[in-house]
Amino acid sequence: MKQEQQWSSKIGFILAAAGSAIGLGAIWKFPYVMATSGGGAFFLIFLLFTIFIGLPLLLAELIIGRSTGKDAIRAYKTIAPTGYWHLLGYLGTATSFIIFSFYSVIGGWILLYFGRSLTGSLLHHNLVFSDLFKEITANPLAVTSAQLLFILITIYVVAKGVSTGIEKASQFMMPALFILFLVLVVRSLTLEGASEGVRYFLMPDFNKLTKDAVIYAMGQSFFCLSIGVSVMVTYSSYLDKRETLTKSSISIVSLNLLTTILAGFAIFPAVFSFGMEPTAGPGLLFVVLPSIFEQMAFGSVFLVIFMALFLFATLSSAFSLLEIIVAVIVKGDASKRKKYSWIVGFCVFLVGIPCSLSFGPMSDMTLFGKTFFDLADYLASYILLPIGVFLISIFVGYRFPRARLVEELCKESAWWRKGTVYYVMLLRYIIPIVVIIVFLNIFGVL
Ligand code: PHE
Ligand code: NA
After folding, report:
1. 405 contact partners, CB below 8 Å, separation of at least 6
2. CB-ligand 1 contact for 99 (6 Å cutoff)
3. Domain ranges across the chain
């Protein structure tokens, strides 16, 4: 049996894991969810969730993966051979499947926009950008074939393997993303009237918070870090036993927060400068970006570069969504990787079609007032992710052998000999209680 590869370096792992985290969550979803949930105050709550729950939980997932070196299902089985904990692996795999099915829709849109930016037809037409967005996303054939193409690229990279596929791609894509993002931020901040956008982003006004803001902030912080679905368990299982985890998790969270902040600084000043509504929903990014570049010297060149970068950001997250499923199926046998990457990818495509059509022919088919797309997003991001986070917290807090936890953590700093107690308290009590309170809140129980 040909064994799975490993990451070839620690930085390769961090870039791949940060690549999984940094994606549509930070760049596409965050600005519009923040706008519809209350602006700057939402951002503050999001920050608290990211630092006090997201970071410790990310560390917990890394510990599970690295200490077992196994895929999401077998990792839980290895630590807890009896009981039902391995169902947590199934839950993560299923959630990843659902996320991938709507994630690939946006991936497809980005491909379509990328194509149009190449031919120049993104800037030169006689529609306003919001109508162009509607036209593009309502075309059933275009969106489904773009979605398929996006999935095919993901399959291609994942089928190549861990260090030769995912790591190599991320190592090139992530640094490029940061550098070009900075250019965008500078342009946006120097637009006329930009300061209003900055104020909107950074000045919390708690009166503006909507009723559901806290659940959205929580779900969004988990989604942005790729936690709660054992994707990070899978990625850290390919990590060398000697590598340290605390620093890695801090690096991943910091890079992710940095991107979220850059996205805020790129989008809101432009939104206010052009007099748009920040609450425009899923189309926000796709309407704002062309508007910025239209007014910029060499705008059409920059637009091409940017669409490519958003594609990178989205792809690197899609890799991890496919990887966890493939890893669970092949169970470390690298010779099966290729075949199952293709099979799983196609299944995701089939399930994803209704999500793709949610902005066109199937936009009237709703359940609980939500289209397929919204339903998949809501179910995964605001229900399944928090459940996953809750259970993983309990698992590491209660079931993971304490001596082994101390041993894993002390590899990098002796502080953990004492500090683990606090960490376990956080995992046992604080995180589960907070998640439950927020969770019951959405169902109107509290
Ligand atoms: N973190 C990714 C993003 O923000 C989405 C994701 C969630 C990826 C869960 C993997 C697992 O775009
Ligand atoms: Na990504």
Report:
1. 63, 396, 420, 423, 424
2. yes
3. 10-442
Please say whether the dihedral angle defined by the alpha carbons of residues 31, 202, 40 and 249, taken in this order, is positive or negative. positive
- Distance, CA of 253 to CA of 232 (rounded, Å): 12
Is 26 touching ligand 1 by the criterion CB < 6 Å? yes
Helix (H, G, I), strand (E, B) or coil at 247: helix
C-alpha–C-alpha distance, residues 284 and 303, integer Å? 16
Which CATH architecture describes the domain 10-442?
Up-down Bundle (1.20)
Q: Taking the CB of residue 27, how many other CB atoms lie within 10 A of it? A: 25
Q: Per-residue pLDDT tens for 342-365?
A: 999 999 999 999 999 998 888 888
25 lines ligand 1 (CB under 6 A): yes
Ligand 1 pocket check for 50: Cβ under 6 Å: no
**Euclidean distance between CA atoms 192 and 376, whole angstroms:** 38
Q: What is the interface pTM, i.e. ipTM, of the complex? A: 0.98
pLDDT 10s digits, 296-354: 778 888 888 888 888 989 999 999 999 999 999 999 888 899 999 999 999 999 999 99
Residue 368 sits at φ, ψ, to 5 deg, of 50, 35
Task: Answer yes or no: pTM beyond 0.90.
Answer: yes
Helices (H) and strands (E) in the chain — how many of each? 22, 0
Is the pLDDT at 381 greater than 70, yes or no?
yes
Q: How far is the CA of 403 from the centre of ligand 2 (A)?
A: 34
